[in-house]
Design a protein that fits this description.
The chain is about 55% helix and about 10% strand. Helix 6 (about 105-120) crosses helix 14 (about 255-260) and helix 10 packs across helix 15 (about 270-300). Strand 4 and strand 5 form a beta hairpin. It has two domains: about 5-55; about 60-475, Cytochrome P450 (Cytochrome p450, Orthogonal Bundle). The protein has about 475 residues and is of the alpha+beta class. It has helices spanning about 10-35, 35-45, 65-75, 80-90, 90-95, 105-120, 120-145, 160-175, 175-180, 185-205, 210-220, 225-235, 245-250, 255-260, 270-300, 305-315, 320-325, 330-340, 375-380, 430-445, and strands spanning about 50, 60-65, 80, 150, 155, 345-350, 355, 365, 370-375, 445-450, 460, 465, 470-475. The chain contains 20 helices and 13 strands. The chain is globular and about 60 Å long. The longest helix has about 30 residues, at about 270-300. The protein has a four-stranded mixed sheet. Strands 4-5-13-10 form a four-stranded antiparallel sheet. Its cofactor is heme. One of its GO terms (cellular component) is membrane. One of its GO terms (molecular function) is monooxygenase activity.
Length: about 475
């Protein structure tokens, strides 16, 4: 009897092994080509929680600082945001071959995402709030049952817990509670962003012709990607009417509303909708949990701020979306943590699809070059942030009555975490709510501390800040 189609035959396994051996050999030769000094430098970087790609030339970077240039960077049609990340994450492989990068197509996508997430998003979130709260209660208790008892508290892995909590809640927002509760689908949602990050790292180390093979090896031939897209293709296409989800939740989900908004479109079809939603999922699933990890780590070393935030939560007792979003100290603490811990030290990255010169005659970006801003420098500018290297949890709380607060979700060239202009992250309100829901739930019930105060918490891959998977925090029930 012949083996099932889904099971690789022996020769396929042999081919995969051969490519793996070849890749390892290629990387080893690349490392040693510069001699032992290069290898020692790499080892030193690893041991000091810093890792770069010293065997490749630095990309052609143009870094901008003025508000005028940042606005131009954000809106120039030949400077592509998608092309940067397509190169970085290998969208040809990790997003199943999506390629809709013409200026006209970008405009169509941008308008849809803005309406879907930014214009209508807050209304959806307000109505989703009670369902998300219920999901969080169940998911958090399930995660805590996996913890271990340490000194009167429960020890949990902060990165894994943050990732799971964020993914479960975001899945309800995107696909509804039924799909979010499907363990196979939920596991694919959790795995897909991890696959993307693994591929990003691998693609930096290997020649581009090896990318499809590296992707196949690292992701089991895109197993999670295909599982997600197959379900999305169904509920956004032929199986749309048969999608089994509670009506009051379905009408609030991103998948449902994305399909409704594109009915009758000559451009959008189930294949492209599913690919596009896959890309939005990666951004939505990856960024919030990373932010959440950094915030929990910051809280674990600042007991005084835990008490201050707990007092705010106890006093104001937010019971809906608007009340939670209006907590001034929680919002400020989150924003200050992210200011000092951006995921990427560069922001608003754009790739030049053709040579481009900024107004005024400079700077010029060559074809294929990258223009961006230094998020680190902008968020450490002493003119904007006095004592910029000092953590001030209440930095953004207004000091005068009636003065507006600089919110975590505000878009500004001084806080470029969300991008800028028309391409600023339209999903930032979703990210903010998910993070605040989880933080408020944990802070209301527990105090937080590091299990090992000497444990490493972060490392750096090029300009990216990454959490250690091994770091654990201890949650102890509050004495009220």
């Amino acid at each position: 009897m012949s083996p099932p189609i889904s099971t690789p035959t022996n020769w396929v396994k042999l081919a995969q092994l051969s490519f793996l051996v070849f890749t390892v050999a290629y990387v080893a030769i690349s490392l040693f080509r510069g001699g032992y000094a290069k290898l020692r430098r790499i080892a030193h970087d690893f041991s000091n929680a810093r890792f770069y790609k010293p065997w490749k030339a630095a990309d052609n970077f143009t870094v901008l600082y003025s508000k005028k240039q940042i606005a131009e960077l954000s809106e120039a049609t030949v400077l592509s945001q998608k092309a940067v990340y397509a190169d970085m994450f290998g969208f040809k492989h990790t997003m199943n071959g999506i390629d809709h990068n013409s200026p006209a197509n970008r405009l169509i996508r941008t308008r849809l995402y803005s309406r879907l997430l930014q214009v209508n998003g807050p209304t959806y979130l307000e109505n989703l709030f009670p369902f998300l709260k219920q999901k969080l209660d169940k998911t958090l208790q399930a995660e805590l049952k996996k913890g271990k008892n340490v000194n009167g508290g429960l020890s949990i892995p902060v990165a894994l817990t943050a990732r799971r909590l964020s993914s479960k809640l975001m899945a309800v927002v995107f696909y509804g509670d039924e799909l979010a509760s499907d363990e196979g689908f939920a596991e694919a949602l959790l795995r897909y962003p991890k696959d993307m990050i693994k591929c990003m790292a691998a693609f930096q180390l290997t020649p581009s012709w090896l990318s499809p093979y590296m992707h196949a090896i690292l992701t089991n031939r895109g197993e999670a990607m295909h599982k997600i897209q197959n379900r999305l293709r169904d509920i956004m296409g032929m199986g749309r009417k048969a999608w089994n989800e509670t009506p009051e939740i379905k009408k609030l989900t991103i998948a449902h509303n994305m399909t409704e908004m594109t009915d009758g479109s000559d451009y959008w079809d189930p294949e492209l909708l599913s690919q596009s939603l896959l890309g939005i999922w990666f951004a939505a699933a990856h960024q919030p949990w990373m932010f959440l990890d950094f915030i929990l780590l910051e809280l674990s070393t600042r007991l005084d701020w835990q008490h201050a935030l707990q007092k705010e939560l106890d006093t104001l007792a937010p019971s809906n979306y608007n009340e939670l979003e209006k907590l001034p100290l929680l919002d400020s603490f989150i924003k200050e943590t992210i200011r000092l811990n951006p995921l990427d030290k560069f922001a608003i990255r754009r790739k030049a699809l053709e040579p481009y010169t900024f107004q005024g005659g400079s700077p010029s970006v060559p074809l294929g070059g990258t223009a961006c801003v230094s998020a680190h420098d902008l968020m450490h500018d002493p003119q904007t942030y006095p004592s910029p290297d000092t953590f001030q949890g209440a930095r953004f709380v207004p000091t005068e009555a009636g003065a507006p607060q600089s919110k975590f979700t505000d878009v500004s060239e001084k806080f470029p975490v969300w991008g800028y202009g028309s391409l600023a992250c339209p999903g930032r309100f979703y990210a903010s709510l998910i993070m605040k829901l989880i933080l408020s739930e944990i802070l209301s019930k527990y105090t937080i501390k590091l299990e090992d105060e000497k444990a490493r918490t972060k490392f750096y891959w090029e300009s990216f800040t990454m959490p250690y998977e091994s770091t654990r925090i201890v949650l102890q029930e509050r004495n009220r």
